[in-house]
């Protein structure tokens, strides 16, 4: 898949060596809550941006829907008082107009909005000619194309200060998470658009405070570019997302405990790494040759079954095959879950090859 994105880099967002940190309450609730939270967050030197939700997308119609534009003067005051830059979620063109009128420094498009190309297009039109950066959260479901499509729509109206926000994905089995991280998706986004800054939102991935550190650290270990993290002066009384918000003082501890690793090392380190990588390249090449040979044998089997009018699937054989490979893999110390996924994938491809043979008149 090729992408069509012309963007500037994370340096446009950052003003220090530490990755970008956007912190603030899930929702702006009152002038006092906005101001007190901002004053406490401004004491953390790593926090440069203040987030607050004004128009809250709620799953059910009876939830707190935010105070709307009434909070804009509160944010203006908080900015004057603390120097923090203000970041707000926009879901409608009207929200953009109001934010621009109030000197908001950055806006973000929420997960529910990203999922709707009509809405994203409307927002893009309203952003034409606008100079402030725009963040695009991943859509709720794990569809990287939809995420890229939204980024492209925003970029197509001339906005180059763009970053993606990884906030996890809806899934029926989320394990301990509120939204499954599925790290392979932001990694693939980085592969496709290397310049695009990706900011991790551990708050909406975790849904609870206890998991925030682990997710934030992992995002840094995966060379992500920053954090958007919810912080509230009094989390247990928060009107939205109470379980995942952190007190500013706890946020400070979390940020101070994060280990920042470099993406590249010294010359010696890079030479050594390159040597090991060359060995990995050779092993991968062998692996591909072996896979090619295996698929060749599968073709042979497919033709033989066809000639003899035998079904593609023999469940006994499949069960034995998986069992014996798992046993061997186990003895070698390979992770069982990984191995099972791999075997299922290889088997799926074998079925596909044999189906093609069965359906092809010439074979
Ligand atoms: C939020 O950031 O408070 C929010 C509603 O996030 P998301 O769009 O990721 O659910
Ligand atoms: Mn929230």
Describe the protein's topology.
Blueprint: E1 20-24, H1 31-42, E2 49-52, H2 72-82, E3 85-89, H3 93-101, E4 106-109, H4 111-114, H5 117-127, E5 134-137, H6 144-156, E6 162-166, H7 184-192, E7 198-200, H8 202-206, H9 212-221, E8 226-230, H10 248-257, H11 267-307, H12 315-332, H13 336-359
Bound molecules: phosphoenolpyruvate and manganese (II) ion.
The site of phosphoenolpyruvate has 9 residues, from helix 4.
Q: Can you walk through the features of this model?
A:
By secondary structure, the protein is of the alpha/beta class. The chain folds into 2 domains: 11-257, Alpha-Beta Barrel (TIM Barrel); 267-359, Up-down Bundle (Chorismate Mutase Domain, subunit A), CATH 1.20.59. Helices cover 49% and strands 10% of the residues. The chain has 13 helices and 8 strands. The protein has helices spanning 31-42, 72-82, 93-101, 111-114, 117-127, 144-156, 184-192, 202-206, 212-221, 248-257, 267-307, 315-332, 336-359, and strands at residues 20-24, 49-52, 85-89, 106-109, 134-137, 162-166, 198-200, 226-230. It has an 8-stranded parallel β-barrel, surrounded by 5 helices. Helix 1 runs parallel beside helix 2 (72-82), helix 3 (93-101) packs parallel to helix 5 and helix 12 runs antiparallel to helix 13. 34% of the residues are buried. The structure holds phosphoenolpyruvate and manganese (II) ion.
